[in-house]
Amino acid sequence: MIRLPDGFDQLLAASVSPERAQRVLQALDQEPSVSIRLNPSKLRECPFTDATPVPWSPWGYLLKERPVFTLDPLFHAGCYYVQDTSAMYVGHVFREVTRELGPGAAVLDLCAAPGGKTTDLATSLRERFGDRFSLLSNEVMRARYATLRSNVETWGDPCVQTISRDPSAFGDSPVFDVILADVPCSGEGMFRKDAQAVQEWSPKTVEFCALRSFRILSDIWPTLKPGGILVYSTCTFNHFENDDTVARIASGLGADVLPLPAFPPVVNTRYGQVLLPGLVPGEGQYVAALRKHGDASGACCGESCVSRSIGPLFSSGKRTFSDAPAVPSAAPLVNVDRHTALHYLHGDAIVLGADAPLGPVTIGFEGHALGPAKNLGKRCNNLYPKNKRIRMDIR
Question: pTM here?
Answer without folding.
Answer: 0.93
